[in-house]
Amino acid sequence: MSHPIGSGSEIQGAVELFAWSFEPAVIIPVAMAALAYGCGWTTIRHRLPERFGPQRPAAFAAGLGVVVLALCSPIDVAAGHRLWAHMVQHMLIMLVAPPFLWAGAPLAPLLLGLPLSVRRVTADVLAAPTVRRLLDFLTHPTTSWIAFAAAFWIWHLPVAYELALTSEPWHHVEHLCFFAAAMLFWRPVILAWPARSPWPRWAMIPYLLLAEFQNTILAAILTFADRVIYPTYAALPPTGALSALEDQSLAGVIMWVPGSIAFLLPLLWLVVTTIVAPGTVPRLEAQPALRRR
């Protein structure tokens, strides 16, 4: 992932249209996930056709595509010297890709797509009591929400954000934290098979409302601030008509409007399916554990 701080004056809009990086640190994991999922889905769709129709791989592929778009496209280049582009990148990583990936119900296909020896070792590790307790803790909605909010606020503090702007390794760490926290956050919302939640479905309504509220707070801070919060952007040479302060306000609007929509759409779906017309969406019933081949 390129992060050309200080080179903004050398990057022109026409060039950025073709500035795809295809970073190995992104492309290799994405390709491996796509391959494993595809192999696993061709097996499990015969066992559970009602659970794994063509919409599942389509959703998973869309999620992987959004990850590539966020981290390898001209958006990543522009994020090095435009806060609004960096905000688009973060929204894609945290609010768009994870719901699509979970909608693909990836756990079973990914496990089945592994080589048999690797699958057996992975299954044994996941079945270990200590690992199960750790996973239960990490995937609990309370932990997921706190992790999401913590990653969101900590990495938008000026000291942490500036660190990510000026250090390529920390920039990768920032994106990894955003993505991991977002995957945890969206899991109980999508709750794709075979996931279970200790909370009732209606509890995801305040879960999303509170997340949207804290998103709105930071968006308002960025939109209405009378000074540049991240000094690096103010120090960069101008790259267009926007000043650094106007760029910051635009970033806040992007977080506020598209960001709020990303929370409100699943929230409305939950209101309809749990309060207005419960039972309209089939309940995710337990299924027998997948046998090892």
List the helices and strands and how they pair.
Blueprint (H helix, E strand, L loop, with lengths): L12 H4 L7 H24 L7 H18 L1 H6 L3 H21 L3 H6 L3 H12 L1 H10 L2 H14 L3 H9 L1 H23 L13 H21 L6 H5 L8 H33 L17
How many independent structural domains? 1
Counting helices, strands and paired strands, the structural category is: mainly alpha
Distance between the termini: 38 Å
Number of strands: 0
Give keywords.
about 290 residues, mainly alpha
How would you characterize this protein structure?
It contains 14 helices and no strands. The chain is mostly helical and 293 residues long. Helix 5 crosses helix 11, helix 9 runs parallel beside helix 12 and helix 12 runs antiparallel to helix 14. The radius of gyration is 20 Å and the shape is globular. The C terminus is likely disordered.
Brief digest:
The protein is mainly α and 293 residues long.
